[in-house]
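Section 5: illustrative case.
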């Protein structure tokens, strides 16, 4: 996978399957979410559950089914845009040697006390930028 700064591998579980025997389309979003959890932990050193971000955009293009016998999916992530309070990330999901989906999300860092967005911490921006170069 090229043009991505980070990769994580996730197990395909029986509970992820739908009646047709492949991973349900909604589970793809859960895989992306877990990839973000791993990224924030490993790259930014914070738990995604410890910070105040909201997902404001999610787009998934499904390209190939994922089945239980694929065993794992690899999620590659690349930060595409860093705004004052937002981060847009591109994803490529692979299973069984094929691209199963491509996706893009935008998350906004929010102030839960006052509402609205707040600037991303400079340390996060620096870490994200360092991987992009």
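Designed sequence:
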């Amino acid at each position: 996978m090229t043009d991505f700064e980070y990769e994580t591998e996730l197990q395909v579980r029986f509970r992820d399957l739908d009646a047709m025997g492949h991973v349900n389309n909604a589970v793809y979003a859960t895989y992306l979410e877990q990839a973000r959890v791993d990224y924030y932990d490993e790259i930014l050193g914070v738990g995604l559950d410890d910070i105040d971000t909201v997902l404001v955009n999610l787009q998934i293009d499904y390209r190939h089914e994922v089945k239980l016998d694929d065993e794992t999916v690899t999620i590659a992530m690349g930060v595409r845009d860093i705004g004052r309070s937002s981060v847009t990330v591109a994803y490529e999901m692979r299973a069984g040697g094929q691209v199963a989906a491509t996706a893009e999300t935008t998350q906004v860092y929010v102030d839960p006390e006052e509402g609205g967005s707040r600037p991303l911490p400079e340390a996060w921006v620096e870490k994200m930028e360092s991987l992009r170069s």
